[in-house]
Specification:
Chain lengths: 778, 266
C-alpha cells in the first residue's frame, strides 16, 4: 500500500490555502520575531502582542516566536505576559522586518500570586476549549504530598481530571484510561511518568517552564493518545547570567545550574533531583537491610544555540531511574530516557519551521539471584520520531499549521534470561514493532469579528511490521493458527482524524465554544492491577489488537466577571471509545507468546459536565472545580455483556484550591478534594471449596469504594531584604491535615475464630504527613 | 556567584504510616448458584464429592445440598454412584481411579444436570525433601522444600494442599513449569495464611493435575485486594456450576518442623 495519496491530498490542501492567504496578505507588512524574558533570555510562550489602534493582537508560539501582519506606518504596540511589566512603544514599520522584544519580570515586586498566565480574557476569546495552561510559578503554592511540588498532581485538581489514587501522579482525563494520556517533555513521549510506584512524577519542577493540558478539542498537531495531551516544556536556561537554584526536602533534594555559554546566544540548564530514603537504610545494622536500595533520581539537561536571528538549535534530554533492591537477592530498576534535537528556522517573516528528532525509551530490569533461581528479566520500549512542523502566519485572521511525522515504535516484551546453573529456562518473546506515519494540517481562522475557529485533519497510517510470528485465536483465546513474517509491513491501519474547535464571542466577557475530535491510538498499556506498575506490558496494534479510537464532542460556556478577576466556565462532553482492551480471568501477560489470546475487546462511553470558577486577582486566589461524570465500558465476555462502570468512573469530583498572600513574607495555601469512590468489584456471595471460603462475584465494578476526601495545607515563608544575590525560602506542608483514613484497599477475610463469618477490612495508605523544604537561589 | 554551597540540615518530622481497620460494607444479595467440588484422587478407594449453593455474604452458614444425584462414569463402561452422607457430602468407597480411563461427572440437582470430563495424569516423583529456615526482614520463616526433575517437553501442573497438625487440608499453591520445563526444580511450600512453627507436623499433599484444575486454582491464587477485577475462578463444569472436577495423581509428604539452619536442603 502506498502512502503517497495522503501526502498528495495534504499538499493540495496546503497549496489551496496558501493561495487564498496570499490574496489576503497584500498591502501589508509583516513584523515577526521572538518575545523573551529580559532577565534570563527564556522565551515566553503565549505572550500577547497587541496593536491597540489597529484592534489586532497575536500570541507567541511554543518557542516565543510571533508574526503579525500590519499596514505599513507608525503604530502603538503593547506586549504583555502575566508576571511581567507590559512593554509599550510606538513603532515605525515601513517594510517587513524581524524585531525581538524582552519583557521585565515583576515577580520581585508583585504582591499577589499569579494563577492565570493567559491573556486576561483569553479563556473567553480563544477558540481552543478543554485546555489548561500552567506555569511552574502557579504550581509552587499549591500544597502537595511530601512537599514536592508537582505539575501532574496540580492538574488533578482541575475539572475533568481524576487522580489515579492516593498520592499518585497518574491521572485519568474525562473517563479515559490511564494509558490514554500523551505526556510529552520537550515533544518526547514519556512512557512512565512516575517514580516510586506513582508517588512522584518524573517532572522535576525546577526544570519545567510550563505545561499545557488538552482534554478535548485536541489540535491536529497532536496524535497517538485518545484522551488527553499533556505538553510540558523544559526551561531553556538563562542566557544572561549564571544562576543556581535548589532545595533540600525530607524526601528529596534538588539542584539546578543554568547560565550562558555565549552571552545572549547560547545557554544551558542542568537540573538534578535525588531521593534519599535509602540513606536511612544504611544506618541499620542488619546486613540485608543496609545493603538494600530504594531511591530514584532525575536529570534534566538542555542547551540552546542561537545561530542567527533566523536559526536556533535546541538540544534537550531527560534521564531518570528508580532502583529498588533487597540485599543482593533481588533487584528491580526502571527508568525513562528522552532526547530531543530541535531546529527552529524562520524561513521568512510569515513562515516558521521546526524540525525535530526525538528519541524516547522506557526500560525495566529485574534481577533475581537466589540459590537455584538465578535470572534476569528485561523489557524495553522505545521510539524514534522525526517531525517537521510549519506555522504560516498569513495574516492576523489566519494561521496555518501543518507538518509530517514519522514515528518508529519498538517493544521488547519482558524476556527471561537464566544464568548458568539456574533451575530456570530462558524465555524470549518476539519483539514487536510498527511505524506510524502521520501528516496534519490545522487552520486557525477568524472569519468574522466574533468567531474564531481552529479546524484541521490528521492522517495517520500505522504499519504493523515484522519480523515475528503472529497468532490467531479462537473464541476462548486458544491459539489456532500461526504465521511467521519477515521484514515486511504486515498490516496498515489507516485513520483520518478530523479536529475542530470554535468560539463564538457573545461579548468581551462571555462566549460559547464547541469542539469535536477523533483520535486513534496504536500503543496500548496492559494493566491488570488497580495501580499501574513499571512492569505493565505495552503492546502496539497488531493483527488482533486494533487501534483504539475516540470521538469526542464538547460544548461550553465561558464568562469572566469583575474585570476578569473571576473566570467561570462550564463544559460538557460526550466521548465514544472503540477497541478498548481488557483481559480474560487469570490472564498471563508476562513472557507469554500467546498473550494476545488473553485480551478482550470492547467499547466505552464517557460523558459529563465540568464547572470551574477561578479567581485570578487580589490577595486571595484559587479555584473551585466540580465534575459530574460517567464512564462506562461494554465487553461481550464481561459482566454478561452489560455496560458497567469503568474503575475510574467517579460521579462527583470536587476540588477547592485557595492561596492567600498573608504578608509580603508569608503565603498560605489550602486544597480540599472530595470524590465518589472508584467503581470496584466486591463479592455478592460466598461458598466453600477445599475448606477455603471463596467469594462469589456477580457484577463487574458493581460497588463503590467509600468516598474520598482530604485537606492539604501549606505555608511558604520568603524573608525579604536579604542579600540581593542570595535568596532562600521555606515551604511547610501538611498532607491530609485532618488525618482522614481514606480507603486504599478493601480486603475480605475469614474471621479468625469462626471461618463461617467473613469480615471486611479497610486499608488506608497515608495518615497526616508533614513536610518541610528549604529552597535557595543565587 | 558564590563558590560554595551551604546546606542546612533539616529536622525530619516525616512519617509514613498505613493502617487497617474493620469496617461494615453493605453487600448485595445474590441468587444461589450450585457449587461442585469433585477432586478424585488415587490415594485410596474412598472418593468424596461436595455439592453446595452460594449464600449471601453476610450469611453465618453455608448451604449444603443433600438432594443431588451424583455419578461418575468411566470410559471403560463402569458407573460409580455416590451416596449422600449428609452436609453436602457424597461418597463412594470402592472407586480406584486409573490413568487409562476418561471419567465423566454428572450431578443432578432439582432437574438440572451439571457435567464435566477429566483424566488423571502421571505422577512426578520427588528426589528429596527438606525443611529450610529463611530470614526475611528480620523474621524467621520455615519452608518445606520438594526437589524433583520436571518431565521434559510436556506442560506439568502441580497443586499443593497442606494440613498442619492433622487439621484439614487447605489450598496452598499451584505451580506450572512455564519457566523451568525439564529442570531440576525445588518447590518451596510455606504456610499460606498460617506460618509453619517449630514442632508443627506438616503434611504436604502434592497433586499432579490437569490444566483446567491449575487454571482454576491459579485464578484463585492470583486474586488479591489489588486485582483490578476479581472474578470467579474458571471452572470446568457445565451449566454454570461453580467449582471444578479433577482427577489427581497424589502423594502425601509428612515432616515435622525442626529448628534447622538456613538452606540445609540435602
Amino acid at each position: 500500500m502506498n502512502k503517497l495519496p495522503i501526502l498528495r491530498i495534504l499538499g493540495t490542501m496546503i497549496m489551496v490555502l496558501f493561495s487564498v492567504f496570499h490574496v489576503y496578505a497584500q498591502n501589508k507588512v509583516t513584523l515577526s520575531g521572538y518575545i523573551k524574558d529580559g532577565g534570563s533570555g527564556e522565551s515566553l510562550i503565549a505572550a500577547l502582542i497587541k496593536f491597540p489602534d489597529l484592534k489586532l493582537s497575536s500570541y507567541s508560539n511554543n518557542y516565543g516566536f510571533y508574526s503579525v501582519s500590519i499596514p505599513a506606518g507608525k503604530h502603538a504596540v503593547e506586549i504583555s505576559f502575566v508576571g511581567y511589566q507590559t512593554y509599550q512603544d510606538t513603532l515605525q514599520v515601513d517594510a517587513s522586518k524581524q524585531m525581538n522584544f524582552e519583557l521585565i519580570s515583576t515577580s520581585n515586586t508583585i504582591e499577589e500570586v499569579v494563577v492565570s498566565a493567559k491573556k486576561e480574557d483569553g479563556n473567553v476569546t480563544s477558540a481552543q476549549m478543554g485546555s489548561l495552561k500552567f506555569t511552574m510559578e502557579e504550581v509552587k503554592n499549591v500544597p502537595v504530598i511530601f512537599g514536592e511540588r508537582d505539575i501532574l498532581k496540580t492538574i488533578q485538581l482541575l475539572p475533568g481530571v481524576a487522580s489515579g489514587g492516593e498520592g499518585s501522579s497518574s491521572f485519568y482525563v474525562r473517563g479515559g484510561g490511564g494509558d490514554q494520556n500523551l505526556i510529552l517533555l520537550d515533544e518526547a513521549t514519556v512512557y512512565n511518568a512516575s517514580h516510586l510506584l506513582g508517588f512522584f512524577s518524573t517532572f522535576n519542577s525546577d526544570a519545567v517552564k510550563d505545561a499545557n493540558l488538552y482534554k478535548g478539542g485536541i489540535p491536529a498537531q497532536y496524535g497517538g493518545r485518545i484522551s488527553s495531551v499533556m505538553d510540558i516544556n523544559m526551561l531553556d536556561g538563562n542566557n544572561k547570567k549564571f544562576a543556581v537554584e535548589g532545595g533540600l526536602g525530607l524526601i528529596a533534594s534538588r539542584l539546578k545550574v543554568e547560565g550562558p555559554i555565549v552571552k545572549d546566544k547560547s545557554s544551558f540548564m542542568l537540573s538534578g533531583r535525588r531521593t534519599y530514603a535509602d540513606m536511612f537504610l544504611k544506618l541499620s545494622k542488619d546486613e540485608t537491610v543496609n545493603q538494600s536500595k530504594l531511591y530514584f533520581y532525575d536529570l534534566n539537561a538542555k542547551v540552546n544555540y542561537k545561530l542567527n536571528d533566523r536559526n536556533t538549535v535546541y538540544l534537550s534530554g531527560y534521564f531518570g531511574k528508580d532502583d529498588l533492591g533487597y540485599s543482593d537477592l533481588f533487584g528491580f530498576d526502571w527508568g525513562n530516557a528522552t532526547a530531543t534535537v530541535r531546529w527552529n528556522h524562520v524561513l521568512n517573516n510569515q513562515l516558521f519551521s521546526n524540525t525535530t528528532l526525538i528519541y524516547s525509551d522506557f526500560t525495566y530490569n529485574v534481577n533475581v539471584n537466589n540459590d537455584d533461581s538465578d535470572f534476569t528479566i528485561a523489557s524495553k520500549i522505545r521510539n524514534w520520531n522525526l517531525k517537521q512542523d510549519f506555522s504560516y502566519y498569513s495574516n492576523n485572521n489566519n494561521v496555518l499549521k501543518f507538518g509530517v511525522n514519522l514515528l518508529q515504535q519498538r517493544i521488547r516484551p519482558a524476556s527471561l534470561e537464566a544464568k548458568a546453573g539456574s533451575a530456570v529456562n530462558s524465555i524470549a518473546v518476539d519483539n514487536r514493532q510498527g511505524i506510524e506515519a502521520a501528516a496534519y494540517v490545522s487552520h486557525e481562522w477568524k472569519p468574522i469579528e466574533n468567531l474564531s475557529i481552529i479546524y484541521g485533519l490528521r492522517f495517520n497510517d500505522f504499519m504493523v511490521l515484522g519480523p515475528g510470528t503472529f497468532y490467531d485465536f479462537d473464541q476462548d483465546g486458544e491459539p489456532i493458527a500461526e504465521k511467521t513474517y519477515g521484514n515486511e509491513v504486515i498490516k496498515h491501519y489507516l485513520n483520518v482524524e478530523p479536529r475542530a474547535s470554535m468560539a463564538y464571542i457573545l461579548s468581551p466577557r462571555n462566549s460559547i465554544k464547541a469542539s469535536y475530535n477523533r483520535i486513534a491510538q496504536n500503543l496500548h498499556q496492559l494493566t491488570n492491577t488497580t495501580s499501574s506498575l513499571p512492569t505493565d506490558q505495552y503492546v502496539v496494534s497488531s493483527l488482533n489488537i486494533k487501534p483504539q479510537i475516540a470521538d469526542q464532542v464538547a460544548l461550553g460556556y465561558f464568562q469572566n466577571f469583575s474585570n476578569n478577576a473571576y473566570e467561570f466556565s462550564v463544559e460538557s462532553y460526550y466521548k465514544k471509545l472503540d477497541n478498548q482492551i481488557d483481559f480474560r480471568n487469570g490472564a498471563d501477560l508476562q513472557a507469554n507468546k500467546y498473550m494476545e489470546g488473553d485480551l478482550l475487546y470492547g467499547i466505552g462511553r464517557a460523558y459529563g459536565v465540568e464547572f470551574l470558577l477561578r479567581k485570578n486577582k487580589g490577595k486571595l486566589n484559587g479555584w473551585v472545580s466540580y465534575t459530574l461524570a460517567k464512564s462506562e465500558r461494554q465487553f461481550d465476555q464481561i459482566n454478561d455483556g452489560n455496560w458497567y462502570a469503568a474503575r475510574q468512573d467517579r460521579t462527583h469530583d470536587i476540588s477547592i484550591v485557595g492561596i492567600y498572600q498573608l504578608s509580603p513574607k508569608w503565603n498560605l495555601g489550602a486544597t480540599f478534594v472530595y470524590n465518589t469512590g472508584n467503581a470496584i468489584t466486591f463479592p455478592s456471595g460466598k461458598y466453600q471449596v477445599n475448606g477455603t471460603t471463596m467469594f462469589y462475584y456477580t457484577e463487574r465494578n458493581g460497588y463503590r469504594m467509600p468516598a474520598y476526601h482530604r485537606l492539604d495545607l501549606s505555608a511558604n515563608y520568603e524573608p525579604k531584604n536579604q542579600d540581593k544575590r542570595f535568596n532562600s525560602s521555606w515551604s511547610f506542608g501538611l498532607y491530609n491535615a485532618y488525618n482522614r483514613r481514606n480507603a486504599y484497599i478493601i480486603d475480605f477475610r475469614e474471621n479468625e475464630t469462626n471461618p463461617n463469618i467473613t469480615e471486611a477490612y479497610k486499608i488506608a495508605l497515608f495518615g497526616i504527613i508533614p513536610s518541610v523544604t528549604w529552597n535557595f537561589k543565587f | 556567584m558564590r563558590s560554595i554551597l551551604t546546606y542546612i540540615a533539616v529536622v525530619s518530622l516525616f512519617f509514613f504510616n498505613s493502617c487497617e481497620e474493620k469496617i461494615d460494607i453493605d453487600l448485595n444479595d445474590s441468587d444461589p448458584r450450585i457449587v461442585i467440588e469433585a477432586n478424585l484422587t488415587n490415594e485410596d478407594r474412598n472418593q468424596e464429592i461436595l455439592v453446595s449453593r452460594t449464600v449471601n455474604f453476610d450469611s453465618p452458614e453455608f448451604d449444603q445440598v443433600d438432594n443431588a444425584s451424583v455419578v461418575v462414569k468411566g470410559s471403560n463402561g463402569r458407573n460409580y454412584t455416590f451416596t449422600p452422607a449428609g452436609n453436602g457430602l457424597y461418597t463412594n468407597n470402592n472407586f480406584f481411579v486409573n490413568t487409562q480411563i476418561t471419567y465423566t461427572l454428572e450431578v443432578s440437582v432439582d432437574n438440572k444436570t451439571y457435567s464435566s470430563k477429566g483424566t488423571m495424569v502421571d505422577y512426578v516423583e520427588i528426589d528429596s525433601m527438606g525443611v529450610t529456615k529463611e530470614n526475611i526482614f528480620n523474621e524467621d520463616y520455615y519452608f518445606v522444600n520438594l526437589k524433583f526433575e520436571d518431565p521434559k517437553g510436556v506442560p506439568n501442573y502441580y497443586l499443593y494442599t497442606v494440613s498442619i497438625n492433622d487439621g484439614p487440608f487447605k489450598f496452598n499453591a499451584v505451580q506450572n513449569d512455564k519457566f523451568n520445563d525439564a529442570q531440576v526444580v525445588t518447590h518451596q511450600i510455606g504456610g499460606r495464611n498460617d506460618e509453619f512453627k517449630v514442632g508443627d507436623k506438616v503434611k504436604v499433599r502434592r497433586q499432579i493435575v490437569s490444566k483446567e484444575l491449575y487454571t482454576y486454582w491459579n485464578e484463585y491464587q492470583l486474586t488479591n485486594p489489588g486485582s483490578a477485577a476479581p472474578g470467579n475462578p474458571t471452572g470446568n463444569i457445565s451449566n454454570g456450576a461453580l467449582g471444578y472436577f479433577g482427577i489427581s495423581n497424589v502423594r502425601d509428604y509428612t515432616v515435622t518442623i525442626a529448628d534447622a539452619d538456613d538452606d540445609d536442603l540435602e
